[in-house]
Amino acid sequence: MSGPLAIDGLTLHPIRIPLGRTVTWASASESHADYMILELRAGGLAGVAEGTVKLNFAAATLATLASAFAEIFAPRLMGIDAANSAAVAEALSGIREHRLAKAMIDAAVWDLRAQAAGKPLWALLGGRSASVPMSCTVTRGAPEAMAREAACAVARHGFATLKIKTGQGMARDADALDAIRAAVGERVVLYADSNRAYSAAEVGALTAMFAARDIRCAEDPCALAPDRAFAAIKRESAVRLLVDGPCRSLGSARLFLEAGAEALSVKLGKTGISESLAVATTAKKAGARAHVGMMAEGELGALAAASLAAALGDTWLPCEASYFLQLPEGLLREPLAMANGALALPDAAGCAALIDWPRVKRLSP
Asked: I want to staple 194 with a disulfide (CB 3.0 to 4.6 A). Which of 135, 167, 209, 247 is the partner?
């Protein structure tokens, strides 16, 4: 199985970044952000990838992820030709779980291929522009705090689209959306992500409230499954439904599309680059839409996610991978450039040379 890009080394770099504040997600609050950097070496090159390590996101900790790589994946990868997608897929086949680890391997392999081709990843994937429109996610909190966060994001970085984390109760969600709209104006596009906080019976009332406030779509307003109930929930919704959490593979994407889904979110931490491209292609053929969702990426993860978004072209929602702007520290020697709501992707062929490795070492927990 060996070839010109035969993998001959694997190193993990755990990262812990203190946030300086408490961030509240749907099922957890945190005061620090954990990431794992994967470094794959082949033929004198180093491909890198970032994994967002949150127990509630990916059922992994830094320790369990390191163990999975050491015991399961590293032995299977040594000697595999990273340029041979079939060989990489075969090496990972048979492992049903550990989606985050497999997604990181896929991204690192693509980074190796970009170096070997002498092209930036976004160009290798078929992207036509290095400028990628981005959205910003406003996390849960008091309505006035969410409004301040939204206004700051728009003023500082020029975001034209905001994803609002709802699910705090319908009345509080309405207050938050009203406060945010007043803070950012009518031109900024808003959409809502409730992280399954509501019941199917509440979707009609919830989305009617969204529609009255010009909310573009409802992401995971309740628990969604590709079954008969999905059609009923879709009929009840006053805005377009966006399927995120339960769309975890190409197989599940196909089931949702067959059930009538019109919009899907792909995330590198769930489906990597290769499978995400396949999901987006399948959705397009079915007349549905797909965009790149958020996994609370740092700078390195944002580069990969935005490169994928560049390859997908003009999606109906901008790439969501802008969480790195909320981190007190980044991992790159030069911060990523944001202007007018768009991320400028670097021209570097591969990302290893962009990383501030002494900082990576310092941030190791």
From this structure: 167
CA atoms within 13 A on the CB side of 177: 29
Of all residues in the chain, the percent with pLDDT exceeding 70 is 99
Tell me, yes or no, whether 227 and 261 share the same domain. Answer: yes
- Between the CA atoms of 99, 105, 110 and 116, what dihedral angle is there, to the nearest 10 degrees? -170
Place 1 in a pLDDT band, splitting at 50, 70 and 90.
very low
Contact between 34 and 337 (Cβ < 8 Å): no
CATH code where residue 253 lies = 3.20.20.120
Same domain, 226 and 347: yes
> Is the pTM above the cut of 0.70?
yes
Q: Does 299 share its domain with 155?
A: yes
| Count of structural domains within the chain | 2
CA distances from 309 to 83, 159, 183, 195, 319 (A): 22, 16, 28, 22, 6
Instruction: Tell me, yes or no, whether 233 lies in a domain.
Output: yes
Contacts of 251 (CB under 8 A, 6+ apart): none
Return d(Cα 298, Cα 296) in angstroms, integer. Answer: 7
Residues 65 and 131 in one domain: no
Smallest CA-to-CA distance from 79 within 91, 68, 93, 96 is with: 91
Nearest Cα residue to 35 out of 285, 330, 277:
330
Q: What 8-state DSSP symbol labels residue 328? A: S
What sign for the dihedral angle of Cα 86, 88, 91, 97?
A: negative
Same domain (yes/no): 115, 132:
no
Neighbours of 86 (CB within 10 A): 9
Confidence of residue 3 (pLDDT cuts 50, 70, 90): low
| 163: β partners | 137, 191
Write out pLDDT tens, residues 129-186: 999 999 999 999 999 999 999 999 999 999 999 999 999 999 999 999 999 999 999 9
331-344: pLDDT as tens digits: 999 999 899 999 99
Q: Are 257 and 288 in contact (CB under 8 A)?
A: yes
Collapsing DSSP to helix, strand or coil, 210 comes out as helix
Residues 158 and 300 reside in one and the same domain: yes
* C-alpha to C-alpha distances, 302 to 47, 52, 272, 305, 351, nearest whole angstrom: 15, 11, 13, 5, 11
